[in-house]
Fold:
Amino acid sequence: MSFAKLLGGSEVCRQLEALSDSRRIPHAVVFESRDMQLAKSAAAELAAAFLCESEGKRPCGVCKACRKVRDGVHPDVYSVETTGGKQATGVGEIREMIADCYIKPNEGQGKVYFIFDKMTPEAQNALLKILEEPPQNVQFVITTEKSTLLLKTVLSRSVLFKLTQSGEDKTSDEAFEIAVEIARAVPQNIELPLLGATSRLLKSRELTKQVLEQLSEFFTMALEEKYLGEGGYEDYITGMTRMLKRGSIVKLFDVVSKAQEMLSHNCNMNVLVTWLCANIRESRH
Structure:
């Protein structure tokens, strides 16, 4: 099943297709969705794109690698299994996965690891080490119902995609436009563009919620590009990557997370927007 069939014509769908076709799939991806089956199906599609043997559009759906991934029998695609009846993946399972990462693939040019179950904080800290210095041609796909269940350090070293099926509520065009305005304003030393963009958030709480979610994705993508040193992203992502230090992008990610928390606690919108603008400005330096 293609990304388009899974996700409709959403912005996330377009981003995933662009990354797959350009062979710029991030080494670590987080799929957040209320529908875990949707997240797992997207993970399989991404694995097929990563291992696809086609020289054209990926995943092609017809090569041996694509067929094996979709049939669940590709020898270079692994699911990290929670053992011993535990409710969350522990540090032991993650360490076993890390050890396996350094073994050559069986038949493909890379290896894909799915982490579908919740992880303990200890497991996430163990995972963090491999995310910081990943082996070549290894991809990690994590699925979660809520990205807040993951450590911020894990999220900051992954690219987060929030999945919705066709027909579900998706980020509005206005929210995406505002998020792009803010992302473009972030590296600039002049304040007017940032003030103008953030002031539009006063329109509604729902709009602000969607903008913050989109900004979280943008900042994680900028971090991914910073760590990999590769291109393939939109200009508002590469602008941040070129102009900001890695630590500044991490701070911006934390600012958005804090703003989301403030919004969930029904903080006064004027206070929230003023705080957000000031802290984005401060985090740039």
